[in-house]
Design goal:
Number of strands: 28
CATH topology of the largest domain: Rossmann fold
CATH class of the largest domain: Alpha Beta
Largest sheet: 10 strands, mixed
Amino acid sequence: MTASIAYFSAEFGIDASIPIYSGGLGVLAGDHIKAANDLELPLCGVGILYRKGYFKQVVGEDGIQRHLYPEIDRTGFQVEPVSDHEGRPLLVKVPIANRLVYLKAWRLQVGSIPVYLLDADVEANDEQDRRLTDNLYASDRHCRICQEIILGIGGVRLLRKLGLKPAVWHMNEGHSAFLTLERIREHSAQGLSFDTALEAVKASTVFTTHTPVPAGHDQFDIQMMDHYLRDFYWQLGTDRDTILALGRVGDCFNMTRLAMRTAAIVNGVSALHEEVTKALFHQWMPHIPKQDIPVTSVTNGVHIDTWLAPELKELYSRYLPADWRGRTGEPAAWSAVRNIPSGQLWERHQKLKEILLERLLPGHGASAKETLLIGFARRFATYKRALLIFMDLDRLDKIVNDPERPVRFVFAGKAHPADGPGQQMIRRLVEISQMERFKGRIVFIENYDMGSAKTLVQGVDVWLNTPVKPMEASGTSGQKAALNGVLNCSVLDGWWNEGYNGRNGWAIQGETEGSFDRQAQKDGEALYRLLEEEIVPLYYRRNAHSVPLDWVNRMKESICTLAPRFNTHRMVREYVNRIYAPTHERGNRFSANGFEIAGKVAAYKRFIREQWHHVRVHSMHTHSSQGTRIGLTETLFQVHVYLGPIWEKDVRVEAVGSDGDGGIWKVKLNAVAELGKGLFRYEGTFRDRNDAMLHSTANVRVVPVSTDFNNDFEMELSTWG
């Protein structure tokens, strides 16, 4: 690929010294940028330079989270202002309500990759507008929609002022989805119809969704949309209602819905998250089975050079192939970890644990180094269940205060300022940590950031993760821990559902049935049992040299099986091969020859929508007979379908049914005769061992298709028998 990719994200976690991120989404974006640099990918990032960032967390003895918003000291930043061709600060204008807001542009250089950041703190703006980019994820909805206009519309205008013409536009979460409207506006200004512009934009756009929780998808009421974009609608070459329909869900405009409808490819961030996202998006198109919702997945990874401790990097370099750092996605490059003497690997791990104790837990005594240390650090949202381990305090008491085999837990993380239940979880955690029997055994570290995250994922013995399954999209902190030989103990959710093999950590199976309390009861019991019967005994089983050989063997298994799979070099290569390259080709094809293909697809879709009401399934007949192979039943489907003026080759007709195991089967039916004008007979056969299941679930579906579609459900249309 020689053309560029524009990667839009509301936050970037490049380094702890540049606090314009809140958590996993931003850190993932930062790791994506670094991997793109390593792989020499022609990519640029686009985001916002927040004046105060997320917030600084202070938690007192009362457990109350306090939110401080000090202005970020930019003297430590490696950012520089972007200048125009005359050497003056480059300014971008965006329409917000009935005014123009001016944005200053900055560049953060990550190797060869520029990350462009927009900043509204410009003298030309009034005081209120200058504050628009103060805080990341502002609780005020009016400020939030302004920030998303700045990111999406402003980001496109910035790239244009820089003379950049990306071939692929990547929306990392729905916050930047307004960029698609701005790109439609550009095409409209050049004379393209709205429908053609939409197809051209869609062909070159991809969307990554990270949020399996419906409440995590930004949406704005229609009145707010009208207020802030009323002077923008008319510039897109169509009417207000058509634009709002792109993201409308009920009485609100949903940014995820907009992103989905304006992207050629939509992906989740783990295989399980792909299935969860299909189920979530199914509510918007209930006539399409969730298995057919057009969502794929690229499982997240972490940037090895960022998260691997230098002490381990040096040790790995002694035993792994000389070029291992350029082959991080190859299992063969990591297999030599098994040859590292167990004593050496354990010694390095203990050194990293010492560093953690010195930096984060000073005063915990020399014995702390020999005590099993379990870490839990992430955003304090209720579904992440930080308090699961405290379900039975008496049982926990026996675990942590065992005189022969003591255990310590260290917790860290922030709750969003608007998340009252999350803040209450922190308060309860601090309250428990101050109980006499848990003092020194349960510790909370305030103001969790990339700096403390590195120390934790490199120095604890076990990384604990207890979300409600399947509400964790991917999770990457456990991947960082695994890279450093820290063993995961996690609900089988997100990435761990793919990574766990029975020997490289521990799985809390994850109850998915029943009430929230029932799931917590089951999962909590499973966690206590793992600690009591497996984790703690294994850690304290030592040889004559005080090395826990079985534990270290599990560390080696974890590194060898997880490091080559869950890293950003593998992840970004997968984006290139499966998402960027086909989108690049598709975008070029749709825009070639004066947008010929885009115009053709737009006209075709318009015709199909106008005529689709004619499509009806008149009748379906089935005939089953014993097949030639023993045990197989052959079923013939014969269906009459009326298509009206639609050509029979412009539809796919198929029999569809449940396979009884969460999936669906499909049989393509072929047009064999035209019975009258627009009326066709379709036939097809299906061989199956379960004739009764086939008859009880079979139905007929008609969908519009085209070789120019990215998937068979691009139009979100179907007619059933």
